[in-house]
């Protein structure tokens, strides 16, 4: 085996990604199995089968690749699962716990296999997990001996001579591989007959091989009928880039000044046709990157389960909108922040059953995870019915950390105060647990989400629960924008943040004590930022009558004073070159149809700059210049 | 072409008289692209040059050092442009039809350098490179690698990495 190590590298990579997919698929099934076992005392044998098959396939492939630790660990897991295939009612929470731990361990090994192409060096934890599995196998078998009589001999074999079998599995190179490739597509490279039936011939699987083979065959058929192809993400990115460029190029041609003034009916017709094709191409290219968020959501089942068990809380996780499709990169990037928020909900939000009863709530806490499309954005909501955030506690902490000026505290809205929990090092947990309370995390959560062009909002009612909303752009590549001009600069404002644009007069503006300006709009006062002052550029319109105020809203509503509003455009987002570092109030840039570059304004950061400016007090800053 | 001394004059804004041998870095017999700034020839390693394009009015970007003139659209890629005159503390002048943008690679990105005009590609022999011994300002010392003289033409070699490195970075390094 070791002489063909180079070929193995590719196989190892395939094995890892397949195994990860399998584990990711199986984990939520396992967690659901447990809850259904607890609730109804019934377990669907088909689901146990699917978990069993996942471990079995991994064992086979791992054996072929000489990954002995994985082989041996998955072997024990398989043996344990086999008992439940005989009698599903044997499944207990502690089994699930150990199986989950086994999956984590295998994932850990897979990480190493991916980089180093071997799984050595983890003998100690492997032995520990195997010990736990063996223990469970024995107790389970002992406890239910009579009902599992027919299967016990096979199971006994499996447990008494596991080492020998492991070696066998590792040495029987060809056979296990073929039988262990349930997904026919990727392994087609160098293995003959990959579509040959999946698991029917399992050499160490007990008698129910027929039933299992059938099920596996069905699964394989279902998979191939979908006809999916794995594609390198980089290629998809390139495709997206090129499509973006194509749209730009198309606009450059069809809106070319050279042809704009001519009357060219045939050209226009062709241009419309071209436009239609490029738009559909863009939709298709975009959809190739979209995947449902369900898999990420289902990972949370495990997170909630583990944490609830550890803290003896009763928590029910409700998933809504699992089919919502999101850009793959966004899905990947959202995973960790989501884990964090969900953990926080369970750890800090949901109270212990007794406290809940005392508060007059149902003993089982409820966490709701929802994804939905909302006005061109993706919203992910995490709601719990726990104890909520305590405005006073957070305020006190924020003041002691210097995040909030005590004198301003009275005027602040709840949302402004709650926003502090996303600051670095901010934690109100009285007691640090191993899960949360260290104040590391929520700031990272916010940063991760902001780096995706999204934002987090938080609402809470003391005693009633907390609701966190993550708002993300549908795609990272294209933005629907409104072009505004200031002097000789053209800015792009994300259309989503614009509420209206209104002409204003000198008389509408009041200067407040911190030097900021407020403008009267239909009786109400909203703050105003003059974009040319903010970015220190020469404006075309100094007099308010000559320009226009664009009302924008992120968390708060305020308006930006600009020379003029040019119009709406769909533009391809480009990052600012690294060389420039970060530019205040700018999130990126886009290329306009005439080839000019426009800076994309980041409304939320302008807003927070406005706040800090207010806090600094503008004694050295001039008032309104007009 | 001006000689060494007058070059020293031009670059000399602050008579610190520091020794610049440290900046003479290892220069191999590599090919260099030479360009002109205020009648003085400068050189950068050709290997770092991606392309030379006609100057196009850059889109200004607020909140940046004065020598970064903004960004240009180079066939769909957004490229920042640096005014080398400003960066080296030379006098400003209007762009004319000979003004070029030399696009160089820096930390994996293309950066455009605005120069008066591009001259030639020359072989620079390490043995002929001498330290920029005139008393330049300290920041200039950092950006220049040395002088090269051949056929009465004095070429000042620029260290791209130091010239393009953000002063704030340098300060951070110095502070550390």
**Helix segment count of chain A?**
20
Q: What number is the mean pLDDT of chain A? A: 75
- Could you say which overall geometry of chain A the principal axes of the C-alpha atoms support? globular
The assigned structural class of chain A equals alpha+beta
Spell out the CATH superfamily of chain B.
Answer: CheA-289, Domain 4
**CATH topology type of the largest domain in chain A:** Four Helix Bundle (Hemerythrin (Met), subunit A)
Identify low-pLDDT runs of chain B: 1-28
Distance, first to last CA of chain B: 41 Å
What's the quick description here?
The complex is a heterodimer of chains A (626) and B (176). Chain A has 626 residues and is an alpha+beta fold.
General description of the model:
- The complex is a heterodimer of chains A (626) and B (176).
- Chain A has 626 residues and is of the alpha+beta class.
- Helix content of chain A is 49%, strand content 18%.
- Chain A has four domains: 2-226, Four Helix Bundle (Hemerythrin (Met), subunit A), CATH 1.20.120.160; 233-289, Histidine kinase  CheA-like, homodimeric domain (Helix Hairpins, Orthogonal Bundle); 291-473, Histidine kinase-like ATPase, C-terminal domain (Heat Shock Protein 90, 2-Layer Sandwich); 478-616, OB fold (Dihydrolipoamide Acetyltransferase, E2P), CATH 2.40.50.180.
- In chain A, the strands form four sheets. Chain A has a six-stranded mixed β-sheet.
- In chain A, helix 2 crosses helix 7 (162-171), helix 3 runs parallel beside helix 5 (123-143) and helix 4 runs antiparallel to helix 5.
- Chain A starts with a helix and ends in a 10-residue tail after the last helix.
- The model of chain A is unreliable at 145-225, 434-439 and 614-626 (pLDDT under 50).
- The model of chain B is unreliable at 1-28 (pLDDT under 50).
- Chain B contains five helices and eleven strands; from the N terminus they run αβββββαββββαββαα.
- With 176 residues, chain B is of the alpha+beta class.
- The relative contact order of chain B is 0.26.
- In chain B, the strands form two sheets. Chain B has a six-stranded mixed β-sheet. A five-stranded mixed β-sheet of chain B has the order 3-6-7-5-4.
- The longest helix of chain B has 9 residues, at 167-175.
- In chain B, strand 4 (68-74) and strand 5 form a beta hairpin.
- The N and C termini of chain B lie far apart (41 Å).
- The interface between A and B is medium-sized, with 26 and 22 residues.
């Amino acid at each position: 085996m070791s002489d063909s190590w180079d070929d193995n590298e590719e196989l190892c990579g395939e094995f890892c990604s397949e195994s990860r997919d399998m584990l990711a698929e199986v984990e939520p099934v396992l967690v659901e199995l447990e809850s259904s076992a607890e609730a109804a005392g019934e377990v669907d044998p088909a689901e146990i089968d699917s978990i069993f098959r996942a471990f079995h396939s991994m064992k086979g492939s791992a054996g072929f690749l000489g990954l002995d630790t994985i082989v041996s660990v998955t072997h024990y897991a398989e043996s344990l699962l086999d008992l439940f295939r005989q009698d599903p009612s044997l499944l207990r929470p502690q089994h699930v716990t150990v199986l989950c731990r086994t999956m984590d361990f295998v994932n850990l090994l897979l990480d190493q296999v991916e980089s180093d192409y071997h799984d050595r060096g983890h003998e100690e934890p492997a032995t520990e997990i195997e010990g736990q599995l063996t223990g469970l196998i024995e107790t389970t078998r002992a406890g239910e001996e009579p009902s599992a009589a027919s299967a016990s001999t096979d199971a006994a074999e499996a447990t008494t001579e596991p080492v020998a079998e492991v070696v066998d599995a590792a040495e029987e190179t060809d056979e296990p591989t073929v039988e262990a490739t349930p997904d026919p597509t990727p392994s087609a490279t160098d293995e003959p007959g990959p579509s040959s039936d999946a698991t029917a011939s399992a050499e160490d699987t007990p008698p129910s091989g027929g039933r299992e083979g059938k099920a596996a065959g069905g699964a394989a058929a279902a998979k191939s009928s979908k006809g999916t192809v794995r594609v390198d993400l980089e290629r998809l990115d390139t495709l997206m880039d090129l499509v973006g460029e194509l749209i730009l190029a198309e606009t450059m041609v069809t809106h070319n000044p050279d042809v704009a003034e001519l009357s060219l009916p045939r050209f226009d017709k062709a241009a419309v046709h071209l436009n239609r094709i490029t738009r559909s191409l863009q939709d298709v290219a975009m959809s190739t990157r979209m995947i449902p968020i369900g898999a990420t959501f289902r990972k949370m089942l495990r997170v909630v389960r583990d944490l609830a068990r550890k803290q003896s809380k009763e928590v029910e996780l409700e998933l809504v909108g699992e089919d919502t499709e999101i850009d793959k990169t966004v899905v990947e990037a959202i995973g960790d922040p989501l884990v964090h928020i969900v953990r926080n909900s369970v750890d800090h939000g949901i109270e212990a059953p007794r406290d809940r009863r005392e508060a007059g709530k149902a003993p089982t806490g409820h966490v709701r995870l929802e994804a939905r499309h909302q006005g061109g954005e993706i919203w992910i909501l995490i709601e719990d019915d726990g104890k909520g955030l305590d405005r006073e506690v957070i305020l006190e902490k924020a003041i002691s950390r210097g995040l909030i000026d005590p004198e301003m505290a009275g005027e602040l809205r709840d949302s402004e105060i709650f926003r502090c929990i996303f600051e670095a090092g901010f934690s109100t947990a009285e007691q640090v647990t191993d899960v949360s309370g260290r104040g590391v995390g929520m700031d990272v959560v916010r940063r991760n989400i902001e780096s995706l062009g999204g934002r987090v909002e938080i609402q809470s009612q003391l005693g009633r629960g907390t609701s966190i909303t993550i708002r993300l752009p549908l795609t990272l590549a294209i933005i629907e924008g409104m072009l505004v001009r200031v002097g000789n600069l053209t800015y792009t404002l994300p259309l989503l943040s614009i509420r209206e644009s209104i002409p204003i007069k000198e008389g509408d503006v009041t200067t407040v004590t911190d030097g900021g300006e407020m403008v009267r709009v239909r009786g109400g006062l909203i703050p105003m930022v003059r974009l040319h002052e903010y970015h220190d550029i020469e404006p075309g319109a100094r007099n308010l009558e000559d320009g226009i105020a664009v009302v924008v809203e992120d968390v708060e509503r305020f308006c930006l004073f600009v020379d003029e509003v040019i119009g709406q455009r769909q533009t391809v987002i480009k990052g600012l070159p690294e060389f420039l570092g970060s530019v205040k109030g700018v999130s990126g840039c886009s290329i306009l149809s005439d080839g000019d570059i426009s800076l994309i304004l980041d409304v939320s950061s302008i807003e927070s700059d406005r706040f800090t400016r207010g806090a600094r007090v503008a004694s050295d800053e001039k008032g309104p210049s007009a | 072409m001006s000689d060494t001394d007058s070059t020293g004059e031009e670059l000399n804004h602050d008579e610190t008289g520091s020794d610049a041998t440290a900046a003479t870095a290892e220069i191999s017999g590599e090919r260099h692209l030479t360009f002109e700034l205020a009648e003085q020839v400068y050189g950068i390693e050709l290997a770092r040059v991606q392309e030379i394009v006609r100057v196009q009015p850059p889109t200004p970007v607020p909140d940046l050092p004065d020598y970064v003139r903004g960004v240009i659209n180079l066939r769909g890629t957004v490229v920042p442009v640096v005014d080398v005159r400003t960066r080296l503390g030379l006098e400003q002048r209007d762009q004319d039809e000979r003004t070029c943008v030399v696009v160089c690679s820096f930390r994996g990105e293309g950066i455009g350098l605005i120069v008066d005009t591009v001259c030639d590609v020359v072989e620079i022999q390490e043995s002929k490179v001498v330290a920029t011994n005139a008393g330049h300002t300290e920041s200039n010392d950092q950006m220049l690698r040395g002088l090269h003289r051949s056929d009465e033409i004095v070429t000042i070699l620029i260290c791209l990495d130091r010239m393009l490195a953000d002063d704030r970075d340098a300060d951070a390094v110095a502070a550390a």
